[in-house]
Amino acid sequence: MKLGLANTLEIMKILGEPQKSFQSIHIAGTNGKGSTATALSSILKECGFNVGLFTSPHLISFTERIRLNNIQISEQSVIALAEEIRGLIDGTGLQPTFFEFVTAMAFHYFASENVDFGIIETGMGGRFDSTNVIAPDISIITNIGLDHCDFLGSSISDIAFEKAGIIKPKVPVITTSKDPDVVKQLSDIAAERGSGIHVYDRDFSGSLLSINDRHIEFNYTGHKSYSNLSFPLSGRYQLFNACAAIRASELLMQKGLSIPDRAISEGLSKVKLEGRFEYVSENPPIILDGAHNPEAISSLSASLGDLLPGKKIILVLGVMNDKDISGIIEPIIHNANSIILTKAAYERSASTQRLAETINSLYGPGIKGTAEISSTENVTEAINLARSRCDKNSVILITGSFYTTGEAKELLGHTGVLSRLREKNEK
Fold first, then answer.
1. Phi and psi at residue 316, in whole multiples of 5°?
2. Which of 295, 302, 359 lies closest to 330 in space, CA to CA?
3. pLDDT tens digits for the chain (427 residues)?
4. Among 146, 225, 234, 426, which residue's Cβ finds the most Cβ atoms within 10 Å?
5. How far apart are CA 135 and CA 319, in angstroms?
């Protein structure tokens, strides 16, 4: 992977600086970026704005990455954009990475569609991320955890420094990090750049009213108070993401934008996001969650008691080889009554032997008494085995990687287009 912005800046110049044609909100963080971005996009759409949304990775369709007013770009538009940009850069000597090229496609598409706002999620990190060529109105850093350590550094401090690369001079920044050391580091960097920082639980906050396996209801307190808001994504951690989107809306209002209360409540209630505690089958119940690092898995695990009380959980787990496998397995494994290890059809997938060895090294034979553990050759076999173990009180939970959950979703009849177009080191 090449780190740096030179390629993207050069492509932007060739395309006529499309990133300068729209206002933008830039979102970085280890987890929660997609939920926050989608929530904010939905709020602004409810205001009548023309909104572009750029996220990554995709679950089953490449077209999930680029949306206009929450509608995925068409396959035909993807092909046309790719051909146009390739034609413009041929002969220049530029050899953009996959993500640099896709970022250029998104910005060029948004410019051609005359979007008012682009909600832009970083691909990885922030400082050298291809998206970091925009001049945002607001920056959001959701939280910081250990992920992509080979590229971003092996400590929380190193990773926070990279994510903080999206903080621009005199541009407000929002964070939902609960780590006091991270908050101090981000605050110091924001102060150096003359940027005000808005911290969850200090400057704005939310209180959970109810939670189930389909949505949360909550109150928000910030510049204003909003009561009985509904957000159709499950998990206590989704409270932080929804609140970050509301805080961004408040900051836009301070800049003169008109965002009525109705747009916030309806925008949040209409959010749809794949692969985040998503039911893809009801009989038997099958849930997909793309948690793929220790922090995300820990948050998922902590929410399962609220979301699936009294249920027998059949866990289907597939993880990428370059992830913290023990850090992913340890938080989730005790929630499961049955554990099925699997391997997605992707070159970075960890073998089931490695997953089993990790479980054995963590627990030895002790775990065997509490959960049945099996290994399967592929995701199809894993789903079939999980189904065979179901009774009326069972729920199948497929997690560990967006690749595993994406493949499962396709196998369960949800078709995608251009699904194999991916960066080799994506989430």
1. -105, 120
2. 359
3. 556 899 999 999 999 999 999 999 999 998 999 999 999 999 999 999 999 999 998 998 999 999 999 999 999 999 999 999 999 999 999 999 999 999 999 999 999 999 999 999 999 878 999 999 999 999 999 988 755 455 555 578 888 888 999 999 999 999 999 999 999 999 999 999 999 999 999 999 999 999 999 999 999 999 999 999 999 999 999 999 999 999 999 999 999 999 999 999 999 999 999 999 999 999 999 999 999 999 999 999 999 998 999 999 999 999 999 899 999 999 999 899 999 999 999 889 999 999 999 999 888 765 554 678 999 999 999 999 999 999 999 999 999 999 999 999 999 987 765 655 555 555 5
4. 234
5. 35
Looking from the CA of 308 toward its CB, the CA atoms found within 13 Å total 23
* Rounded-to-5 percentages of helix, strand, coil across the chain: 40, 20, 40
Buried b (16+ CB within 10 A) or exposed e, 89-114: beeeebebbbbbbbbbbbbbbbbeee
Residue with tokens 């538009």: 77
On the CB side of 328, how many CA atoms lie within 13 Å of its CA? 26
Tell me the CA end-to-end span of the chain in Å, nearest whole number: 14
Task: For residues 35 and 56, give the distance between their C-alpha atoms in angstroms, rounded to a whole number.
Answer: 11
What's the predicted TM-score (pTM) here? 0.91
CATH number at 278-411:
3.90.190.20
Sorted by where each begins, the domain ranges of the chain are: 6-269, 278-411
Question: Which residues on adjacent β-strands are paired with residue 23?
Answer: 117
Q: How far is CA 227 from the centre of its chain?
A: 26
- Give CA–CA dist 289/272, Å, rounded: 14
The class that CATH gives domain 6-269 is alpha beta
- Please, are residues 18 and 107 in contact by the beta-carbon 8 Å criterion? yes
